[in-house]
């Protein structure tokens, strides 16, 4: 599959671990900037499985608002299941067998997804954000010795500060650090100050003559920026090269399928609100994501919506518990300008078809966020799509203002939108608006969490409109039943806070591949 590019690497693996120098090792640490394509061949079956396993790991790496202990537990479970990556043997640079296989899979799977996610700016944006989250976690968990060794092999334009210079600057370096440390023992790099604007803004580094002196303890910021810049450039180059692969009938179907994969719940059998009636839909609008709320409002205003809107909204309603019988009642009532005969002639068949009762009898599933963002963009007069992706900036701001999102949070959300982080923006919108629903005054500003605000902190990125609905519904149900803010604060203090992904708090979801039990 991939061309052979490193004979020593292949000989090393084939021999089961021939002794090489550190610099000659194919994967001397678990860290990787993925500068060169992987050198080894794999089968089509491995190609697809490697990609799906990495996607599961990337989804986990983007989980939000977890304590360090919760994040470690969640990430370790994902690594163990999908992408094992054992550390180096203490006191030895010689790696053999299983470690090389694990790191080879990491290398190959990254490049597979790089191919799959280079076709559009939206795909590149998602992949870049996800890979940066994974790389940051891995870098922070790597031993300091392997961090230093890894950076030493990257040909970075960073000047390592000598011990003599550190002695001369000892007092100034110590004054710029929030932590007491042995300056001479600490590793420092001298870099252009523009590379670390966050550290400069927080006055966490010493500046002299346009240079910033970054300690290893804070170096993750610098390393991550380097990783992000390199990967962003590589994705652009890959995107321009992809048209040359269009005639490859082995890879392109697989790649096109991978970037459309949604690995979460399909929302076909478990309606969190139970079976709902047609007349219940208006009251449930409060729990809907902005895309579905917009479709609902336009349906009520125009007494009609086009096919794209009917499919997106109709399958969403199916997923929250609207049965076929009640769906027919809901849509016929909504299309009040149509006579019963006109409705049955023009629309009833399509509704029955979406419930698997006509045609091929396919039980259609609600659209995921990725599907809504990437497919069937709305045209003039359409109301389907993702507001964060398809609304103009003025329209998006107007929608946020209508939902009483304050200026600070509006700018935060619009910044995410401008960077094409549409699902992150939707997740932030969920947190801000649910906080207001709970009456948490000023809660969630800038992503801060304290006290009862944990109730609205979405631990998972919003990947599906029905996920948004379930989290909101469960949040309000639990709040109204027994969990007020004061009770939650007591639970947090006595150490009995629920673990991540526990649906009693916020409708957490155990993600699985479609079609598995």
UniProtKB/TrEMBL annotation:
One of its GO terms (biological process) is DNA replication initiation. InterPro entries: DNA_primase_C, DNA_primase_lsu_euk, DNA_primase_lsu_euk/arc. One of its GO terms (molecular function) is metal ion binding. GO terms for cellular component: alpha DNA polymerase:primase complex. CDD domains: PriL_PriS_Eukaryotic. Binds 1 [4Fe-4S] cluster. Transmembrane segments: none annotated. Keywords: 4Fe-4S, DNA replication, DNA-binding, Iron, Iron-sulfur, Metal-binding, Primosome. [4Fe-4S] cluster binds at residues 291, 369, 386, 426. It holds the Pfam family DNA_primase_lrg. Its cofactor is [4Fe-4S] cluster. Residues 286-469 form the DNA primase large subunit C-terminal domain. Belongs to the eukaryotic-type primase large subunit family. DNA primase is the polymerase that synthesizes small RNA primers for the Okazaki fragments made during discontinuous DNA replication. This is DNA primase large subunit. It comes from Mortierella alpina (Oleaginous fungus).
């Amino acid at each position: 599959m991939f061309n052979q590019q490193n004979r020593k690497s292949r000989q090393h693996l084939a021999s089961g671990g021939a002794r090489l120098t550190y610099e000659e090792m194919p994967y001397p640490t678990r860290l990787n900037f993925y500068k060169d394509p992987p050198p080894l061949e794999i089968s089509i079956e491995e190609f697809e499985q490697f990609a799906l396993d990495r996607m599961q790991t990337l989804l986990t790496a983007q989980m939000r608002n977890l304590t360090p202990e919760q994040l470690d537990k969640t990430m370790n479970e994902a690594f163990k299941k999908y992408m094992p990556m054992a550390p180096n043997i203490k006191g030895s640079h010689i790696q053999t067998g299983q470690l090389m296989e694990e790191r080879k899979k990491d290398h190959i799977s990254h490049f597979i997804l790089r191919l799959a996610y280079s076709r559009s700016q939206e795909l590149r944006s998602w992949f870049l954000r996800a890979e940066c989250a994974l790389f940051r976690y891995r870098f922070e968990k790597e031993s300091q010795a392997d961090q230093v060794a890894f950076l030493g092999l990257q040909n970075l334009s960073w000047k390592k500060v000598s011990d003599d210079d550190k002695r001369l600057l000892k007092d100034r370096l110590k004054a710029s650090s929030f932590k007491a440390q042995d300056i001479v023992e600490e590793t420092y790099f001298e870099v252009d100050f523009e590379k670390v604007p966050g550290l400069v803004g927080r006055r966490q580094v010493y500046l002299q003559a346009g240079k910033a002196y970054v300690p290893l303890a804070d170096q993750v910021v610098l390393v991550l920026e380097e990783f992000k810049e390199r990967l962003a450039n590589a994705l652009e180059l890959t995107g321009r090269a992809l048209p040359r692969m269009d005639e490859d009938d082995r890879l392109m179907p697989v790649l096109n399928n991978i970037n459309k994969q949604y690995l979460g719940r399909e929302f076909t059998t478990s309606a969190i609100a139970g079976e709902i009636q047609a007349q219940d839909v208006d009251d449930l609008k409060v729990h809907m994501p902005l895309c579905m709320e917009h479709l609902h409002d336009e349906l009520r205003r125009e007494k009609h919506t086009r096919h794209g809107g009917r499919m997106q909204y109709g399958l969403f309603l199916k997923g929250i518990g609207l049965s076929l019988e009640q769906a027919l009642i809901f849509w016929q009532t909504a299309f009040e300008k149509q006579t019963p005969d006109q409705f049955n002639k023009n629309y009833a068949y399509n509704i029955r078809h979406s419930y698997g009762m006509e045609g091929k009898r396919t039980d259609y599933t609600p659209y995921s966020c990725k599907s809504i963002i990437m497919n069937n963009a709305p045209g003039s007069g359409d109301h389907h799509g993702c507001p964060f992706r398809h609304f103009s900036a003025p329209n998006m701001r107007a929608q946020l203002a209508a939902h009483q999102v304050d200026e600070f949070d509006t700018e935060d959300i619009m910044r995410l939108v401008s960077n094409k982080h549409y699902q992150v923006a939707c997740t932030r919108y969920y947190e801000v608006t649910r906080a207001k629903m709970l009456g948490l005054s000023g809660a969630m500003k800038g992503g801060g969490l304290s006290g009862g605000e944990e109730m609205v902190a979405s631990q998972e990125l919003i990947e599906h409109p029905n996920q948004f609905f379930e989290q909101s519904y469960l949040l309000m149900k639990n709040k109204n039943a027994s969990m007020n803010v004061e009770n939650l604060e007591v639970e947090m203090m006595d150490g009995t806070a629920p673990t991540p992904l526990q649906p009693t708090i916020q409708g957490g979801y155990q993600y699985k591949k479609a079609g598995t039990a």
